[in-house]
Amino acid sequence: MQPLSPVLSEARRIVIKVGSSLVTNEGRGLDEQAVGQWCRQMAALVREGREIIMVSSGAIAEGMKRLGWARRPHAVHELQAAAAVGQMGLAQMYERQLVSHGLGSAQVLLTHADLADRERYLNARSTLLTLLGHGVLPVINENDTVVTHEIRFGDNDTLGALVANLVDADLLIILTDQKGLYTADPRHDPAAEFVHEAQAGDAGLERMAGGAGSGIGTGGMITKVLAAKRAAGSGASTVIAWGREPDALLRLARGERIGTLLVAPTRRHHARKQWMLDHLQLQGSVRIDAGAAAKLRDEGKSLLPIGMTAVQGQFARGDVIAILDEGGAELARGLANYSSAEARLLCRKPSAEIAATLGYAVEPEMVHRDNLALLD
Ligand SMILES: Nc1ncnc2c1ncn2[C@@H]1O[C@H](COP(=O)(O)OP(=O)(O)O)[C@@H](O)[C@H]1O
Ligand SMILES: N[C@@H](CCC(=O)OP(=O)(O)O)C(=O)O
């Protein structure tokens, strides 16, 4: 047996994506038994302190079955109608199964526009982190009924990767109908060899995964390989594994090497920091006092409004801003929770006064420490 992998066993925040063919038993109808198995394992992982987010496909396949359609329609409005019908069944099934294993559940439907817009991105992130903080397991799908064709994620592999980026996950697990990635599509090439491990983003992987999908799902392996590359951008590694492998999730979380592991070349904090440092054009900055600077630098704390002494420039919630020390030297960069206009009103105010000052409070921090990169 291969040695245990710390990339797997040390992952605290995990996004788990399951594809349509698994969830709907190859299109025959929701596979509640399989979903029950994953829910049991996810509940056990949450109890041991891991944070789990699920991305589940299957709405269109289940909707087609409920509507009695044998073939996948091409018209977008028909796909959207099927998704609306099927999503009801998906959500009910997850809720039933998660509750039976003692977990609260929440449905989150996202579109591309939600993640492209800075403010909605931060809102989605806050909501998901709040749900995790309450021990509730979010079950995400694309909001198929409102998206137009051009801006669909289409496959949920991409959505899984973007969610992993959104919440700074350590690991993305993609469960599918194959044991993992092969050097060619095993449905068509009996000589295809299994790939145990590779580096996420390796161009050779994209050539191996060129073939189409199962016919039930939309992506095939190529979207999984590209999802791994995307997830690696924020430092998350990806595992592609067979969803019917007994106790796959528990075994992976113990570090067992099942499936294909696509390792992110850079670790999480480094990748995020690099992303912020790569922002050449900052919209503005906040100046902070010596006490706040020490909290950020020495204790790894968030920046609270009380430590801010001045605000320069024009920026919106979600923009990357510079954080300057008393002398004006750049100390850190981070994502602003409040716009420059709001921040000006919040300077030197305790967080308890944010709501009274602005009429609302989004977060107690000006920049949360998870969204903050200290300069060396
Ligand atoms: N190199 C490859 N290795 C494994 N599977 C491949 C490869 N290339 C194409 N595939 C196909 O991708 C399918 C999985 O993708 P898909 O049907 O979209 O699943 P899901 O619904 O889980 O997202 C497999 O059944 C397989 O036929
Ligand atoms: N949002 C869609 C997912 C589309 C899809 O087929 O995804 P996948 O099976 O993950 O390739 C649904 O729920 O049907």
Automatic annotation (TrEMBL):
Keywords: Amino-acid biosynthesis, ATP-binding, Cytoplasm, Kinase, Nucleotide-binding, Proline biosynthesis, Transferase
Source domain of life: Bacteria
Locations listed in the record: Cytoplasm
A GO term, aspect molecular function: ATP binding
EC number of the protein: 2.7.2.11
Chain positions recorded as substrate binding sites: 57, 144, 156
Catalytic activity: L-glutamate + ATP = L-glutamyl 5-phosphate + ADP
Pathway: Amino-acid biosynthesis; L-proline biosynthesis; L-glutamate 5-semialdehyde from L-glutamate: step 1/2
Domain PUA: 284-363
Keyword Glycoprotein found: no
InterPro entries referenced in this protein's UniProt entry, alphabetically: AceGlu_kinase-like_sf, Asp/Glu/Uridylate_kinase, G5K_ProB, Glu/AcGlu_kinase, Glu_5kinase, Glu_5kinase/COase_Synthase, Glutamate_5-kinase_CS, PUA
Amino-acid positions noted as binding ATP in the UniProt annotation, renumbered to this chain: 17, 176-177, 218-224
Predominant subcellular localization, coarse grouping: cytoplasm
Cellular component per GO, a single term: cytosol
EC class of the enzyme, as a word: transferase
An annotated GO BP: L-proline biosynthetic process
Task performed by this protein: Catalyzes the transfer of a phosphate group to glutamate to form L-glutamate 5-phosphate.
Entry-linked HAMAP family: ProB (MF_00456)
Family that this chain belongs to: Belongs to the glutamate 5-kinase family.
Protein name: Glutamate 5-kinase
Provenance organism: Ottowia cancrivicina
Lineage, uppermost ranks: Bacteria, Pseudomonadati, Pseudomonadota, Betaproteobacteria, Burkholderiales
Gene it is expressed from: proB
